[in-house]
Structures are given as structure tokens and as C-alpha cells.
Amino acid sequence: MKLFLDTANIQEVREAAALGAICGITTNPSLAAKENIGDLESYKSSILILTQLIDGPISVEVTAAEASRMVQQGEEIATWHPNVVVKIPSTMDGFKAMAVLCRQGIPVNQTLCFSINQALLGAEVGVRYVSPFVGRMDDEGQDGMQVVREMVQVFRLHGIKTNVLAASLRHPMHVVEAAKAGADVATIPFKVLLQMTHHPLTDVGMARFTKDWQQAAKP
Ligand code: G3P
After folding, report:
1. Residues 6+ apart with CB under 8 A from 106
2. In Å, what is the CA distance from 188 to each residue of 3, 163, 208?
3. Which residues pair with 110 in a beta bridge?
4. DSSP assignment of 41-86, as one string?
5. Would you say the pTM of this structure is higher than 0.85?
6. What is the pLDDT of residue 122?
7. What pLDDT does residue 219 have?
């Protein structure tokens, strides 16, 4: 399973890049707004910086809600950089926009996906990624990871090439479960990436190694 970072924060991407384990980035309008990005021009400037830090797919979401405007924005966003993937929501207008963009060979990440049926509609037109929002389904009392499991199962059964990208992951166990479910990608917030590096027994072990080494070095 590949790991992407779910952020529009340049410093977070810089620090994550140093770990080497992150090979893509996902953003959305809320993450962009958190970084004071409020228009497509500043979204573009930030994305171009991110492309220099991580050499892999970078999802950029359209902000329009109507199909023809989504297509216009998607076509524009796709010109920003060869690694850019256009993120389109799983709405009626979104599905129409996905169909047009996929026909043009523009890579699409189908976002805000909450069901196998929505995922099948995107897969049929050839989206590159589909993003089930695990945490938000959990918030509603639905088992979000079960949707990921079933999506992976259905795609394998039918030889569907669309990548299942587990999103809205909130804690390290979500990452483990996404890996066990067979997700192709997990996109994680920076906080979860930091949590993944940590285990208390590693800290205890390091303290003991250091102490033992220092004592042995005494004359
Ligand atoms: O990858 C989607 C993500 O940004 C949404 O996460 O925690 O707002 O549901 P969350």
C-alpha cells in the first residue's frame, strides 16, 4: 500500500518528504483554506511548490459544483504539472465531469465517495483513484473500513484497474486496517504520519542502549 500525505501545508510536506515513505499528496478545498488559499491562482502556486518536494501524484480538487465548470477547472488544473490529478466529487454533476475528463485522458481522483455504487460509476468511466472517506462514514455510525474492504473485493472480482485510495483516515489503526483491507493507497494527515513513527518501547529501548553504551565507555 502506498502512503500519500493529506495536506496543503508546505512545511508538513517538506518534513514528510525527508522520511522518504510518502509518494503522493492529496488536497481539498478545506485543507487549502486552512493554508489561506482562497483562489485557483494561489492554489496553483502552492501546488507547484509541493511538486518540487514530492515526485508523485498530487490531487487538486475543483471548487465548482456544476458539471461544465468542473470540466473547465479540471482542464485548467491538469495543465499545472504532469503529476497533478484532478479531484472531482461524487455528485451527479461530478460524475458527468469525470466522464468528460477521463475521455480526455486527464487523471481523476473521485472524492467524497461513500458507497460501492458511487465507486462503480467512477470506475466505469476510468477514474484513476476513488477515495472512500473512512472517518466520515465512522462519524455517521457506518463502518467506513468495511466499505473499503468491499470496494477492493469488488474491483478485484471484476478486474477493475481504479485504485482504492482510503481517505479521511484519522489515526494509526485506520492505516493498519486500510492496509489489511487491501487499499492501494492510504492518504494520511501529518499528525498520523508522526504517530506511525512512534512506539514507546522504541523510546525505552533507545534510552537503555544509550545508557549501557555510556556506562561501558567509562574508564
Ligand atoms: O482525505 C480526505 C480528508 O481530508 C478528509 O478528512 O478528517 O476531514 O474527514 P476529514
Report:
1. 74, 75, 78, 86
2. 7, 16, 32
3. 88, 130
4. HHHHHHHHHHHHH--S-EEEE----SHHHHHHHHHHHHTS-TTEEE
5. yes
6. 98
7. 67
- Give the integer Cα–Cα distance in Å for 4 and 167: 10
Query: What's the sign of the alpha-carbon dihedral 203, 208, 211, 212?
Result: negative
C-alpha distance across the termini of the chain, in Å: 49
Question: Which segments in the chain show pLDDT lower than 50?
Answer: none
Strands 84-89 and 2-6: unpaired
Specify the pLDDT at position 79.
98
Residue nearest to atom 8 of ligand 1 (CA): 168
Copy the grid coordinates of residue 114: 461513500
Ligand 1, CB within 6 Å, residue ranges: 6, 26, 28, 31, 133, 135-136, 167-168, 170, 187
Q: Which residue owns the Cα nearest ligand 1 atom 3?
A: 168
Taking the centre of ligand 1 as the mean of its atom positions, its distance from the CA of residue 45, in whole angstroms, is: 22
What is the enclosing helix (H) or strand (E) of 96? helix 92-103
Residue 184's φ and ψ, nearest 5 degrees, are -75, -35
Structure confidence by residue, pLDDT tens digits, 144-196: 999 999 999 999 999 999 999 999 999 999 999 999 999 999 999 999 999 99
Strand-pairing partners, residue 185, are 2, 165
